[in-house]
Amino acid sequence: MFAAISAGISALWGPLHGGANQKVIEMLDAITNEGQSATEFVARAKDRKSGIRLMGFGHRVYKNFDPRAAVLKTACHEVMNAMGLSSRQLEIAMELEEIAMNDEYFIKRNLYPNVDFYSGIIYKAMGIPVNMFTVMFAMGRMAGWIAQYHEMRGEENPKISRPRQIYTGAGLRNWNPVDDRS
Ligand SMILES: CC(C)(COP(=O)(O)OP(=O)(O)OC[C@H]1O[C@@H](n2cnc3c(N)ncnc32)[C@H](O)[C@@H]1OP(=O)(O)O)[C@@H](O)C(=O)NCCC(=O)NCCS
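Above are the sequence and the coenzyme A SMILES. Below is the predicted complex in structure-token form.
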């Protein structure tokens, strides 16, 4: 069980995946602190040379829409209203979303807000320290990891499971021996 869960945590790790909601908050803070406009930031995120991405946008699998993002957007407003909070971060997030969703760069690449775009704002409003965000994410997935572990252990003749990778590249290719190369 421990090995299965720690493998799940390790796979979740990192700013492009489970750590993206932390990066969203850092991005919103940087925009506020540096006095940038949402338009300026989106322009930088489109410029590959800048090395900046619009955090909380895009997904490896959801290419049209992330259904979880719509649920979290509503939840985010509900949490802020219930707690009587107004947040400059939420305002900027909504501006960024509005600009990006109408921008050809993001439309052409099917980049939409993902689950992390609003979850960081909710966590922050709830008083969870930013560096604990991935922990919260991992806790949510824990039930699934345990269920999968349980399912595998319950199999009559358990086999190790292995994701398949199917090579679709070239078959035979011509090559030059190392000594013949210039
Ligand atoms: C999630 C993510 C890693 C998916 O990546 P991917 O499906 O492999 O897509 P790619 O990295 O190949 O990007 C495809 C194109 O969109 C651009 N792109 C992808 N996400 C982008 C973003 N968030 N901001 C700006 N441009 C982005 C890439 O630069 C690339 O442009 P190009 O075609 O001109 O080279 C990526 O969208 C990303 O880094 N998002 C920000 C981090 C994030 O929110 N992660 C949480 C996911 S739940």
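Residues 28 and 147 are 36 Å apart (CA to CA).
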